Predict the structure.
Amino acid sequence: MITEKLSKKINEANGVKINLLIEEKDYAERHQLLSAEQKVVITEKNEQFSDAIIERFVKETDETVSKGTKEFFQSPLSHVKENQTEYVYVESKSFDIINVDAIALEFDEVFEVYTAMFGLALQKKFGGSIRDYLNQHFDSEKMNYSLMFSGEDGLWEVNLPLNYMAGFNEDTTIEQTYQFLYSFIFSLVEAVENNK
């Protein structure tokens, strides 16, 4: 899982200096993935999604509204609440470490919550560990998340109402929300890995 992918990233850096996100650096140190000669340069949060493909789509038709820009990424999260017919879709290489290809973000007008949807590429046998982690970090008394394994795709289809997640703050930008989701999923995958 993370160990494999992060070790590969470190080895591919091919030198003594390596750029890592803070979550990756902490993980690499805990699991002793770095050599004594390697110097870690922390990737700034505002550079995390520098390679991201950011798109906006119409929910009903999946028709493209626009290709997002870095400026759009700085929009307040409330943009998706104000434009409830749309969802934001982001792909990034940084998601590879956490076994996710992309994350869609929308405002669910029925339940009036911000919602993140993504496929988590972990084996079916990890379902119990995934649920345990989500149950610990989610207020399921107010609303529940959705977690379903797709045998066809070999991944977990995850639907998270963000308003009921520990640490979520709706007074942020869209980019900060994606950073929050990255950190949350990173911790989730690490917890699953530790429970193998």
Notes: The radius of gyration is 17 Å. Helices lie at 2-13, 22-30, 70-73, 78-82, 127-136, 174-194. The mean pLDDT is 92.
